[in-house]
Design a protein that fits this description.
Number of domains: 1
InterPro entries: 6-hairpin_glycosidase_sf, 6hp_glycosidase-like_sf
Number of helices: 13
Protein name: Oligosaccharide amylase
Helix content: 40-55%
Structural class: alpha+beta
Strand order of the largest sheet: 6-7-8-9-10
GO biological process, one term: carbohydrate metabolic process
Radius of gyration: 19 Å
Largest sheet: 5 strands, antiparallel
CATH class: Mainly Alpha
CATH architecture: Alpha/alpha barrel
Organism: Mycolicibacterium chitae
Oligomer: single chain
Length: about 350
């Protein structure tokens, strides 16, 4: 890929530095195609896909395709994946609904970046099975149970996870439309989920000390306009640490790179470019010389914690750089107003009241 097509944020991150970060992710990829958190770490399906997205963004298409091939091979008959692998061995056989849905975001992103319709056709059955599995966990009110164990769905529906699923289903519907595979049931489920997130957040098990619960309803696309702006303003001072990025949790002196870059993406969704650029610059203290990124910094004592450089932190950097620079055709995947929002007109409050 020419330098001109690589993400670059002038004065903050060069195209060469962006490629170095993506290369550090590719260097961690296992022969199977799996991308673990670190050379000795575990692999989970969500972060694996996020890393594949970063590889596509940087033009490293061959390792990106190997990552998606791994997804196809490891998918179970019911459309799910185990929560955690290590060196090819399943460590947690339960299924996280958000982890399973994210394949749709990754595949649609790769199609946008590459225009590869053969890839879209190849991955379509994998995406379709995954989304059908996830929607099998949707409750009457629209929210989605966060996981399934051998004994059945776990009852909690998490706000961050459901907000991410909302975006993934939007991408799945976009892919379906692109391939001429209409999915009206997905669109109806999407409308119900978006309604629950925006209008009935009390239906979810919230984790308010976590910054992800703060910005993910915006990043995922369920909250827009004044509601989204008010949500960001309400807790800005609680999470944002001047000059360093944002806290992972509100009650600890710990800033993390991935959460900061996801906030950058959420601010970009809102058109708040100045603060997005500022936060992207602020988290660069976590960068290492080889382009990898430390997970976080305990700023109270100046120590990096955990003592690991995670592939998914680097991936979040690459995706945020692309959103800010508009370098690839996938740069707007989180702010794309053209992504389907579901058949919201078909939804009424009977879906909510059925459970309450």
């Amino acid at each position: 890929m020419p330098w001109s097509e690589l993400p670059e944020v002038p004065g903050v991150l060069s195209a060469e530095q962006c490629l170095a970060t993506a290369t550090s992710i590719a260097a961690t990829q296992e022969p199977t195609g799996a991308i673990p958190w670190s050379p000795t770490g575990h692999t989970d399906p969500w972060d694996h896909v996020e890393c594949a997205m970063a590889l596509s963004t940087a033009g490293l298409f061959e390792p990106a395709r190997r990552a998606y091939d791994w997804c196809r091979r490891e998918q179970r008959a019911d459309g799910s994946w185990p929560i955690q692998f290590r060196a090819g061995v399943i460590e947690d056989a339960n299924s996280d609904s958000n982890f399973c849905a994210y394949i749709a975001t990754g595949v649609w992103h790769h199609v946008l970046v590459t225009g590869d319709d053969a890839f879209a056709e190849t991955m379509w059955p994998t995406v379709a099975r995954a989304i059908d599995f996830v929607l099998g966990l949707q409750r009457a009110g629209g929210e989605i149970c966060w996981a399934q164990s051998p004994s059945g769905p776990l009852p909690e529906a998490l706000l961050t996870g459901s907000a991410s699923i909302y975006h993934s289903i939007r991408c799945a519907v976009a892919l379906a439309n692109h391939l001429g595979q209409a999915q009206p049931a997905w669109e109806l489920a999407l409308g119900r989920l978006g309604h629950a997130i925006a209008d009935h957040p009390d239906a979810f098990t919230e984790k308010p000390r976590h910054s992800m619960d703060w910005y993910y309803p915006i990043l995922g696309g369920a909250m827009r306009g004044q509601q989204a702006e008010d949500r960001i303003a309400a807790r800005w001072d609680e999470f944002v640490v001047e000059g360093l990025g944002i806290r992972c949790v509100s009650d600890r002196p710990w800033v993390t790179g991935a959460e900061t870059c996801e906030l950058v993406l959420a601010l970009d969704v809102l058109g708040d470019r100045d603060r997005a650029l500022e936060q992207f610059a602020n988290m660069q203290h976590l960068r290492e010389r080889d382009g990898s990124y430390w997970t976080g910094l305990v700023y109270a004592d100046g120590k990096r914690w955990p003592v690991e450089r995670t592939t998914w932190t680097g991936a979040a950097v690459v995706l945020a750089a692309d959103a800010l620079s508009g370098a690839t055709a996938g740069a707007a995947i989180f702010r794309d107003a053209a992504l389907p929002r579901g058949l919201e007109g078909e939804f009424d409050c009977r879906c909510v009241s059925a459970e309450r």
